Structure formats: C-alpha cells, structure tokens
Amino acid sequence: MDRVAVITGASRGIGAATALVLAQRGFRVVVNYHSSAEQADEVVRAATAAGGAAIAIRADVTAPDDVTAMMDQATREWGRVDVLVHNALIPFAVTSFADLTWEQLGGKLDRELHAAYLITKAVVPGMISRGYGRLVYLSTGLSRRPREGMIALGTAKAALDQFVRYVALEVAPHGITANLVAPATVAETKVSGQLSPGEVKRLGVTNPMGRLVTPEEVAKTVAFLASADSEFTTGHYLPVNGGLAMD
C-alpha cells in the first residue's frame, strides 16, 4: 500500500484515531492541525511507531492559502493525494433557537461549507487526472435528528451532507468516491467536551449499546471508505451510532 491520505483536524479525537488506523494499514498520512502542534507531533510519532509513515502540516482549512500550501507540501513529500478525510471541527455555539444569532448560524454555515469547498477543490483535480480518489467527510447524526442546543451544528452539517452528494455525483465517472460518516456523540472529543458530565452520561445510557462510540470505532468506518474495497460505495451517509437511530 502506498496511498497518501490527508486528514484534516488530525491532532486529536477522530482525526488522530483515523491517522493511526490508516498508517497501520500502510497509508502515508498527512496529520493536519490548526493550533495543536505538539499533539500533532505525538500522532506522527505514534503512526511511525506503528510502522506507518506520517508528517504533520499546519493549515487553517478555512483559509485558501493555507489549504493550497498544505496540499503543495503533501505533493512535494509524497507525489500526490489519493485520500481526503475531512474531519476538522469548525467551532459552533451550543444554544437554543430563541437565543441564536444570525452570526452564530450563518457564520457556522459559511465556515463549514467554505472549508469543505476549499479542501475538496484542492484535491479533486489531481484525483481526476489519476482516475482514483477517496473523499470522506465527517458529519453527525444531528444533521438528521435534532437535539436541543445543536441547531448551528446540525444545520451546517445537513448542508455539508448535500454538498457531498453533489460532489459524489459529479466525480463518480472519474473513479472517485465521496461519502459521509455520521457518528453519534463520540467519547473524549471536542464536541462531547462541550456537554456537561450529566449529558454525556445520559447519552451513553440511552444508546442501545449502553455507551458512547469511540474515536477508534469511527476511524475504522472511515478506513473502509478510504480503501480500495469501497470502490462502488459513493454518495452515502454511514451512521456509526450503536443502533441509536436505525434507518
């Protein structure tokens, strides 16, 4: 395996777990981070220790010049980008609609889609030229099933879901797939960190499996979609929720 994967927001949580799983499976991994350089370096060391190859690259995925520079560096290092895992968390407000401002909602929508647009635009031309690519985006069950306080996140991710479907339709003839992974609340991540201990406990208890999903469990689903084995799976929304919601 000599595929090259860029993982945004890979210094912790789902992104870090994905970097390790892909490195263990033979991918060369770009660990993108925004401000957590030390944590990103730790992920690189862990991936290398596991027998993989990894480098850390700082980039703000909402900044066009940063995204271009990251992809240029990845290409100089390893020649191409075969897989994009867009996991970077764009900050959002936890609030009711009654207290929601347009800046909170519109700002989240703009930054969420701008990041997805920029990072996708940066990798798709090269994938088309090679006739191969895997695009994987982290969504959330909140894009389909609302939960109190999560209106900004849920609305923005619903827009991302549809964006990815349109991309999937357009790039399919070029051997490129585009899919969404939608976990329920994930343990030990920034999102779960915004909840009170009582809310985290309640979410775990109400899951049929009796706990929250782990970053590693999400990463394994991402790894399938990043692999050659998923060649005829595109435009799909894959929940990872322990049976919390069954479609």
Automatic annotation (TrEMBL):
Keywords carried by this UniProt record: Cell wall, Oxidoreductase, Secreted
Compartment(s) of residence: Secreted, Cell wall
Gene3D superfamilies, alphabetized: NAD(P)-binding Rossmann-like Domain
GO-annotated molecular function: 3-oxoacyl-[acyl-carrier-protein] reductase (NADPH) activity
SUPFAM superfamilies (alphabetical): NAD(P)-binding Rossmann-fold domains
Reaction it catalyzes: a (3R)-hydroxyacyl-[ACP] + NADP(+) = a 3-oxoacyl-[ACP] + NADPH + H(+)
Stated family: Belongs to the short-chain dehydrogenases/reductases (SDR) family.
Protein name, entry field: 3-oxoacyl-[acyl-carrier-protein] reductase MabA
Native source species: Mycobacterium parmense
